[in-house]
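B., you asked whether I could sanity-check this one before it goes into the benchmark set. Here's the sequence:
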Amino acid sequence: MFLLFPKRCELKTSLTPTQCRKKLNSELVEYNRKPSLIAVNRFIKTHRFECCYFGSWDKNGKFELFYHRAKKHDGSSAGFFGTIEKTDGGSVIKGSVRRSAAVCIAAAVWCLLLLLMILSMIALKIYDGAACCGALFLVGLALIAYDGSEKYIKSYLESFPPINN
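And here's what the prediction gave me:
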């Protein structure tokens, strides 16, 4: 599962947008993501031994949803970024499951640097070093791409009651 590319999600629920916000307010740990690594580290240390859903929301219907696993440092895990819109007979939750922009930028820099190193080592005829850098490239790409939180996020979104026909 290559989570550097967003996956679109849409869920129709019988709850009104106000009821959806109340559900989010009662079940999520409120946390506004900041670019500060200190703030992320402080949040993860506070909730070190518990699994929890966390995120932020506003009155316009926009919200972010993330999952934290116990004893994991997962401040850069994938999250749901979406909106709650009113429809006839309920509301619809639209958005995408994706990584933050900082993780995508770090992945692009990682790939670019290692590709440049591989090409320069091939030009210098250091094939063993190029192979090692190639292995590092693949391992790093696999670590960046793998994230197990998508299934938890989707299961939480499915906990909203569906529209009964």
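One thing to flag: The two ends are 34 Å apart (CA to CA). Otherwise nothing jumped out at me.
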